[in-house]
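FAQ

Q: What does a record look like?
A: Structure on top, sequence underneath. For example:
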């Protein structure tokens, strides 16, 4: 299976509509090159651009959905379209509704096959943690020969979520992120840890550049079930391409059957 991780810079001076069109072009460029394409977290607005969340929030089937569905169809790829700020109406008089950090996964014919609302919200007592509601459901997607579990950025710090995804059949994890450069060492360490402890592939796609005065880590990374780094991007915009062997998950779990010794 051929996978492409498109590491995008979120430039605050680039209009959101222009960025959607640019990202859609980048996805289409993977036609014939990739089977699976992955985008970063909250690339339409920026993961730390909290003041823009409300203004840029969309319904599930809004402009980001439409642009990415068309791009997946035109490229003929499975597309994890990163995440965007989703607004869910709640019937209140002010029409504010609830916001979620929502990921979308499309099939090669442009059909939505899964959506995931981020469970662990970052920010402690500010930012995403107070502006957005938490998702509740674990999500897996059956690709040809490989079942992937879906997580987002800060989720990477919570191993229980990934154990749950393994129990649901996951052989790989796809993790879009907007990870800050000042904690880049944690990004790499945790990506390898999640791969090793679950004997699964990790495809972690981050953002580049700086937005809301927060420098992004970049360094998207793909780790195999033994914890070996197969590919790693640099700090700038880049498309990281790698070939995955779905059979390696089963062979790793057979050769070193640590998951069978789980007690809890």
């Amino acid at each position: 299976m051929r996978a492409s991780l498109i590491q995008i810079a979120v430039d605050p001076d680039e209009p959101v509509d222009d960025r959607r069109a640019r990202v859609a072009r980048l996805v289409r460029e993977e036609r014939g090159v990739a089977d699976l394409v992955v985008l970063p977290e909250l690339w339409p607005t920026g993961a730390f651009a909290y003041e823009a969340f409300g203004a840029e929030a969309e319904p599930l089937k809004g402009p980001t959905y439409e642009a990415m569905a068309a791009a997946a169809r035109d490229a003929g790829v499975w597309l994890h379209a990163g995440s965007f700020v989703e607004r869910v109406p709640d019937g209140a008089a002010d029409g504010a509704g609830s916001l979620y950090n929502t990921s979308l996964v499309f099939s090669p014919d442009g059909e939505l096959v899964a959506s995931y609302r981020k469970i662990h919200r970052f920010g402690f007592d500010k930012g995403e943690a107070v502006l957005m509601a938490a998702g509740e459901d674990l999500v897996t997607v059956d690709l040809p020969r490989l079942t992937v579990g879906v997580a987002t950025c800060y989720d990477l710090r919570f191993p229980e979520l990934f154990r749950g995804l393994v129990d649901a059949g996951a052989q790989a994890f796809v993790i879009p992120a907007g990870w800050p450069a000042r904690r880049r060492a944690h990004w790499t360490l945790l990506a390898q840890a999640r791969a090793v402890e679950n004997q699964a592939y990790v495809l972690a796609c981050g953002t580049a550049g700086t937005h809301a005065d927060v420098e992004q880590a970049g360094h998207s990374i793909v780790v195999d079930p033994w914890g070996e780094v197969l590919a790693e991007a640099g700090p700038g915009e880049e498309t990281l391409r790698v070939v995955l062997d779905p059979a390696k998950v089963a062979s790793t779990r057979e050769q070193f059957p640590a998951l069978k010794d789980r007690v809890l």
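Q: Is there anything notable about this one?
A: The CA atoms of residues 5 and 77 lie 12 Å apart.
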